[in-house]
Batch of 2 targets.
Target 1
Amino acid sequence: MNRVREINRIIRIRNSTTAPLEPVGWSKCGFCVFRNACWDAAVRDKDIATVPYVDQGAWHQLFGSGVKNYHQLYELSEELLAEIKRPWGKHRRRIGPARARKIKKQIQALKTNRIIMASPPPLPPGYRPGTRPLMMFDLENDVFDPDLGVKVYLWGCLLVKESGTPAAKLIVAGPGVEGDRQGWLDFLAWRSPWHRGQAS
Amino acid sequence: MYDAISKHLFLPTPSYGLKWVEKLAGFQRSQEEFGGLWSIITYDRYINAPTKEQADKILDEILTYNQDDLIASLAVYEWLEKIVADPTSHVL
Ligand code: SF4
């Protein structure tokens, strides 16, 4: 049933002569080729969709009521915002006080161009500012082509020691199941300078 | 790191993704083109490159992107350390 509705929606969009009214959204736009154009326009217009914590349902409800940019949204009191009901699956649900509060704080940060602290951010357990060594990982997978046989195509690891230049290991997997396997083995086989130091 | 930032801070950015937060941390990428979508497309170009020279050139771009991501993560972590060490210097 949902598929039929989605196909009908696509047909409607294809037949229309004006652009559809759709909010930008990070997960929704993630791999869309129009992302830069849509996001540039949304950020320029201070569209309420660019306020983290304004979900798609809230966007539709607010935009439909004439609240289009975050300056207008900021005019609403936290209490009023919390009571606004937006589409939520098959139902409608209040934005609620917790999300309303976050939206207001988020807009305050955007309007003042300042960071607002809700509570002190933690570092990893056992870490204080300046604690080293650190390991940074960056792995990426190929979501477009499951037939390629490569699950992770990019393996990145950065070791930051107490002193000296951080050491990086970067691996790009070859194609096919064998490339995937070799990428993983190469990653495991990296004996970082720190490990070598420990061993000697 | 994402949790430490998104659950405790409100940032003047439309997203809490690395590509936005790294700018607050003062990090500048060495390559103009980057991102998850760019990377997937570039990897596809790499494995289908007609010559070894072309494949090597594309490989360089992917590796630079990956290295930039790692150094950006480090820049964001160091920025977070500064906030933890002295909250008043960075935040409202
Ligand atoms: S970037 Fe793509 S998914 Fe996002 S609003 Fe634009 S067209 Fe829609």
Note: The mean pLDDT of chain B is 92.
Target 2
Amino acid sequence: MALVYQRTCGLLDVPFHYCPGCTHGIVHKLVAEVLCELGLLDGAIGVSSVGCTYNNYEYFACDMQQAAHGRAPAVATGIKRVLPDATVFTYQGDGDLAAIGTAEIVHAAARGERITTVFVNNAIYGMTSGQMAPTTLVGQVTTTSPYGRDAATQGFPINVSEMLATLRGAVYVERVSVTSVKGIRAAKKAIRKAFLVQRKGLGFSFVEVLSTCPTNWGLSPVESLKWVDTAMQEQYPLGVFKGADLEVEP
Amino acid sequence: MARVEFREDRCKGCGLCVEVCPKHIVAMRCDVLNAKGFHPAGVEAMDQCIGCAFCAIMCPDEVIQVEK
Ligand SMILES: Cc1ncc(C[n+]2csc(CCOP(=O)(O)OP(=O)(O)O)c2C)c(N)n1
Ligand code: SF4
Ligand code: SF4
Ligand code: SF4
Ligand SMILES: [Mg+2]
């Protein structure tokens, strides 16, 4: 018998601190697997953001740097410009990227920085116990929208991928989910493409992953997957918003 | 012939592997508690495993290894 699935070399053998069934773990595995499979791990530098994944520098088996809340794209820009041969990525949640860090992500994309952003959208501030995020769905109950998000006073969700795709510097933008084996395979393909876009020096690449937060959504891990497939996907349709025709495979 | 191995102490009992197994042979072991205090997942009818690795791909916590 041969091994058909084993732990990726891109992650250190340290248990994640994430809640049971939280799909942050799946996204970590995909990023790590892609870096290993492309032979990029040794030259990779990741930037951890602020959110439940603030300390994922303890998990990835490559160099990592922690950034202040929302500033990961600015830190990644500096790293990439000083070390242009490095493969530089940010790993950011929706509270980090679409609230306090909106300016940084928009301008990194507009400048066409040759970095890759993995944007994990779970429609909530997970780490701080489930407050409303800019990405929270209309009607979604959170600790700061106890009667459901009311668009009249709290506005509408931000579709970050669609917004960034309007910028010339953003050359590859895709939204994926990790709610099934098929979805996970598609998400891995997207992350692989995003890193290859960076290696070719084509510009800014961005993958939004719809992810779960069972703890703060008040759903079981399995129910949470279903909620992504239904409620979340209605607001955030999957697809390639930029760069569908790019040929980057070596 | 295929075989799955669970690193039982890493399991958080989330049940995502149970959900995706096409042979429905993964189950939570309600009679066992691991070091974290969760009921871990496991497989009884290993002879029915087809080695598809769906359970392992879905596991957020790198608990599962698959041989075929
Ligand atoms: C300057 C600053 N403001 C606010 C906070 C509090 N804070 C920590 S994490 C977070 C939001 C994280 O949400 P998200 O990025 O969606 O990550 P998740 O935990 O959901 O993965 C906030 C507001 C902080 N740490 N620093
Ligand atoms: S609070 Fe939510 S996002 Fe954070 S680890 Fe738990 S389930 Fe995941
Ligand atoms: S490898 Fe496939 S058949 Fe075997 S336990 Fe896992 S999901 Fe089920
Ligand atoms: S998916 Fe992983 S952590 Fe969740 S129950 Fe299965 S083996 Fe345990
Ligand atoms: Mg979040």
Note: Strands of chain B lie at 3-6, 26-28, 41-43, 64-67.
